Each structure stands twice: as structure tokens, then as C-alpha cells.
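Collaborator request, handled under Task 6.
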Amino acid sequence: MTLPIRLPTRIFLLVISLVVISRSVTRGFSQMDAAADFTTRLDRHLERVTRRRGILGAPQVAVSAPRLGIDYRSGGRSQRFHVASIGKTFTATLVMQLVEAGAVTIETPVSALLPGDELDGLFDTTGSTDAAGGATVAHLLTHTAGVADYFDGSVTDGRPVRDLVITEPDRLWTPADLLEFSRTRQRPVGRPGERFAYSDTGYILLGRILERATGRVFHELLHERIFTPLGMRDSALLFHSVPANDREAAPAADAAAAALEGTPAPGAATAALAAETSTGTSLAIAPLRLGRTEASTFRSLSCDWAGGGIVSTPDDLVAFDAALHRGSLVSRESLAWLAEPRHRFHVGIRYGAGMMQVRFGGFSPFLRGLPRPIGHIGVLATHLFHDPVHDAGIVLNFASTREMSRSFRTLIAIEQELARAARA
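C-alpha cells returned to the collaborator:
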């Protein structure tokens, strides 16, 4: 995923005013007063943002900071939206559950978990007899396996999938299709462990590892291990499952979803796509724009799977964030391993393993005092972050590849207002 932004330049223009805000805190508020002040000030910010977004309308925003008495929502708390690469945090969480269960280790070779025909052509195997060139689960999680990125990476022929989503909107992609795209139209970008190179293809392989190791298809694992236990009743894997609320409301849809179940074989997780038996196409989600193109109804969104194919709501994502950071999904040690910043993703952003850390000081020295939230962003200017200083979950959906800069300005404003509330 390439960020279509220049964060430092655009954000700097707002830094001085934000710093002034942070210096003008009125002390002596009660927590209730501080929470009300947070709401008023963030409402004003979002009113300005909404006016500037024009036809895009209001972004979806959720901030949950129980310690500060803050439970803020704006722009539709129950509207489902495409979370994009936020889904990588879900996949990484499922992988760490496998690690904790002893089914795999982070150092298990990929070639020990997937058959050679799935791995052929994806890795640089120069000087190695290993089908994955010695790549491990950790390499895939940290984007250091040397695998190309089918979505946005260089191609030897034609156009990347990012472009094909728009030019071929009715195309249904399976995980096998996506692996084949990288195999035949791209080249590995390096040897395993050699360098960081963001790879959606690598997360497709992680999804396949999860299926092979558990005997369950990927969307079942999401529902059984995350969505259902956490009461995330409006979340699903687009084109593969339906949210619990819809299953209860529509028995026919539930019966159709059951057709997707079974023991997976290579490509079985989306075999129903080719037969057009998937229920995902009927899900109504918030509008989203790829450039100028409104694409929320495109079947080509099936190009996202284990790397970011989830649809969810602000409320459901807040629930996931809270559970993840209180240790309900994986141990605190596993979470710390995922969150550990290892590589530079972008100016001001470091990457761990399915999680990012934002360092606002990288955008401007005036922002060095802000917390360093951890989580993930998606190409549609979607955010899921946890502020460890204020124990706050933050969800943003700006729903456009052209709104990343504006979304980060809002993230900065939220962090400023959380700091203000904490000092009150």
C-alpha cells in the first residue's frame, strides 16, 4: 500500500494552531466537563472537515477513552465500511493465537506450512533448496519475506491490481488468483529478511497458512475467534460471509453463507465466488472512492482478503481495539511483539508485524510531545489506533484514497484534544 500523500508538508500548516490549542488548557474541569469539552471541540473540527470534503460528506469517527469519560461518535456509528488494510491486524492476531496454541512458531518456515505449488515463483530462492527461500512466518508478518505486492507493486506486464479494481469492476478475485498474479506478472523484491517491502501478497499467504493449520476457512476463523466472542455483530469478510445481525434477520442469507463452509483446500475459501454463490455482494457498505471513482458496489473489491477484506463499523472496531489491548485475544507479550516498531513505513510511521506506530514528531518537531498510537491504516484513509497514554481507541473512516492527509490531520486533532481532556 503506497500512501498517496505528503504528510509532513500538508500537516505542518496546522501544527502551530494545534500547539496553541494544547497550551491553552483550562484547568479545574470535572471529568464530565472535560468530556463535554472534548465533544464540542472535536465536533467543530469535524464540521470544518465535512464542509471541505464536499460530496464525500462527513467522515466516520469514533473515540473511546473510558478513563477520561469519553465515548465519542460522529458520522454514523453503525454504518458498515470497508476497513482496507486494518484487516492485517486481524490476520496478525489470528496468527499469534496459533503461535500461542503451539500450532506454529514465528520462525516456522513457510515451506513447512504450505505446499510448493502455492509458493512457486513468489520467493527469491537463489542459493536455497527451500521453496520459500527460507522465509518464515515472522518474515510474512513483518513484510520482509521479499514477496511482491499484488495490489500496488511493480508488474512485468499490464497493470497492478489497484488499477484493475477500477477498470474491471465486475471481476471476482480469489486468493489463488491473487497469488497467481504475483507469480506470473511480478518478481520477488528481495531475499527473505533482506529488506522491508510492504506486501499484500504476503498476507494472502498468511491467510492460507491459517486455513491449512486449522482446517477452517479464513472467514470462519474471523467469526469464531474474533467477531462472535467480541459481539462484533456487524462485521464480516466481504464476499465470503455476512454479519451476525444479517444472518438473524435473513435466514436465506444464512443458508447461503453455510454453503461457504467446509474443510479448505487451496483456493477453497473463495470457491463460491466463481459459482457466484457468495453472499458478500449483497452487503451494503458506506461509499468509498478510489481516486474519483465510487467503488463501494464493485465486485472487484474481492481483491482484498486476509490483507484487508473486512467490513465493520466504528462500534465493532472499538470493541476489537479494547479486547486486543486488554489481553483478551492474545497475550500482552504477543501484542508487544506485533506492535514493536521495526521498519520505516513512511515519514512518521514505523511498522511492526501487522501493526504500525505513528510518531508525530516525524511530521513536525512541534508534535513530539504527542503519544505514539499503535494500530493500522488502510488505503481508503481508514484508521484503527490505540493511544497507550490515554488508553483510547480511535477509529476513522475518510473513505477515499485522496483523503489520507486530511485523516491524519484529524488524528492529530484527536490526540491534542485527548491530551487537553487528560490535563483538565
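The cover message to the collaborator said: "The chain has a mean pLDDT of 90. The radius of gyration is 21 Å. Please let us know whether this matches your experimental observations."
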